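Bit of a strange request maybe. I'm writing a small parser for structure token strings and I need a real example to test against, not something I typed by hand. Could someone generate the tokens for this chain?
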Amino acid sequence: MEIEKKFLVKTLPDLEGAQKKSIEQGYLCRKPVLRIRRSNEQYILTYKSNQGFSQKNALQNEEVELPLTEEAYLHLRGKTDGCLIEKTRYVLPLADGLKAELDIFEGKLDGLVFVEVEFESEEQAVRFQPPQWFGEEVSDQECFSNAYLSGLESFEQWEKENGRGRGTVQSRAEK
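Reply from user aminoacidic:
Good idea to test on real output. This should exercise your parser:
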């Protein structure tokens, strides 16, 4: 079971010393989600479904992950019909033993930035107080779903469809 919340980012936190993952993920199916992921040198097949789960206080999904070989990943990658995303994920410690997963997108979605936090329970998600660098919560907005994002042609398409500048960080936009 996965329980998470997603947020925009007001300002980028200090990333020095953060765990860093280079991620490429592709979608074979979006409802339910059947995803492949390369995270650094790990290869994973993931099944996700939210059918039957409340989405009231946080995103809740049944999630099953299976390891893949690099060869199997590359074979399945060719079957994603271009529904791929690339991002760098920074894992940052938060209060109460939680971790923020800051995703800075690259490639066709360069310019998009958001952060996710996973919880042990729905109650923990309800009690969560985001740090100052977090922005608006966007957990319930489909346009921040990685499955949705994988089907887009560009960040410009995302901006046009979802409101210019909503998924950017001011300090990143100035670079």
